[in-house]
Every structure is written in structure tokens, then in C-alpha cells.
Amino acid sequence: MGQNLISEAVVLEEVKKAIAQTLKLEPEKIQPDQSLMKDLGAESLDFLDINYRLEQAFGIKTARHFVLEHIEEMFGEGSAIDENSQLTEKAVTLLKIRLGDPLPVELRAGTDMDEVPPLITVQGMTKAVMDILDSLPSACGSCGNSAWKSEDHRRVKCGSCGAEAAFTDGDTLIREWLTRIQEEKKIF
Ligand SMILES: [Zn+2]
Q1: Terminal Cα distance for the chain, rounded
Q2: Distance of CA 177 to CAs 136, 161, 184, Å?
Q3: Which residue has the higher pLDDT, 105 or 65?
Q4: 102 preceded by cis ω (within 30°)?
Q5: Is the C-alpha dihedral spanning 10, 16, 22, 26 positive or negative?
Q6: Which residues of 147-175 are buried (b: 16+ CB within 10 A; e: fewer)?
Q7: Inter-CA distances, 40 with 52, 90, 117, 176, Å
Q8: How far is the centre of ligand 1, averaged over its atoms, from the C-alpha of 145 (Å)?
Q9: For the whole model, what pTM was predicted?
């Protein structure tokens, strides 16, 4: 699947705008490789606000839970985070696949879980939104036609019946990704 109605450049611009509005910064000063928490001063609650703005801009539903929480839910308590709130070897393996290696901060088994959210960058957030947009089904669920269009290059509608596009939500996409990686690599 994929879509060619909304470009990554537009998504990056909206991500910068959402961050700028939430954190009261100038969008021009925000760079793709910056960490929201370390470089831009975001706190946990700010992510809710930034995500809400992106959901409104694109008509999507972003993930409510981090990858680590999904690993715990799918593969059992203690599979990602041990009793001392530290990352397991398996969690580190998965995070490296997900976030790319090398990472700005070195992760290893025993790293405190609080070190993970600062790894979220402007580019990473842009990619998460692109993943959701790329889940656009080939045909409209309401009328069955394949006639997606986007007049503002942000919201996708059916050119045939006018229905809003139904994308897969962010949490489902993370679970699908974990299922696929597990099948390929048998980490757990
Ligand atoms: Zn339709």
C-alpha cells in the first residue's frame, strides 16, 4: 500500500507547525533531526497536543502508546521493561530496528526506559504520520470506487462519494509491525 496524494514535505511542514504551536516556537527554527524533548523542550503532555493537531490536519488517529507498551502487551509483562524500569535486550533489538541504528543515544540492555522518549525526533514523527497516510486502502469503504483526491494536500476524500478516507490508526500499525518483525526474526 501507499499513497501519492500527500507528500513527506507537506507532512514535515505540518509536524513543524504543530510542534511550533504547542511549544510556542518559530517553525523555521525546527530541524528534522532534533529531539522533541532534548532539543525543543517538549514534555510528555505536549505530545498529546502535537498529535491532536496532526490528527486534525490529516484526519488520522495517531498511536496512543509507545512501542515499548505494545511489546509488553503482545509478548508479556517484563518482555520489554524489567522490574527496575530498564530495557531488556529484546526491547533494545526491536527499538534499533524501529528507530534506525546508530541512534543519537546508545541503547543497551539496562538503559533506563526514560531514555527512550527523548529519541523521538521531528523526522521520526513525520515518518509515523507518513506510515498512517500510507495505510490508505485502495478503494473507498463507502462506495467501493478508487477515486481518492486531496484538494488541500492534507485531507483525503473520495472523489466519487465524498467520504473521508479511513486510515489505519497508529496503534494498529505498530502492532502489525511487531507481528511482522516477530515472524521474520523470532525475537520472542
Ligand atoms: Zn466513496
Answers
A1: 27
A2: 16, 32, 11
A3: 65
A4: yes
A5: negative
A6: ebebeeebbbbbebeeeebbbbbbbebbb
A7: 18, 29, 13, 30
A8: 6
A9: 0.94
Using alpha carbons only, give the angle 51, 55, 57 rounded to the nearest 5 degrees. 115
24: left (phi over 0), alpha (psi -120 to 50) or beta: left
Calculate how far, in angstroms, residue 152's C-alpha sits from the geometric centre of ligand 1.
18
pLDDT per residue over 81-135, tens digit each?
999 999 999 999 999 999 877 777 789 999 999 999 999 999 999 999 999 999 9
User: What residues are neighbours of ligand 1 (ion), with CB under 5 Å?
Assistant: 140, 142-143, 158, 160-161, 163
DSSP 114: G
Locate all alpha helices (DSSP H) within the chain, ordered by sequence.
8-23, 44-58, 67-75, 89-99, 122-133, 170-185
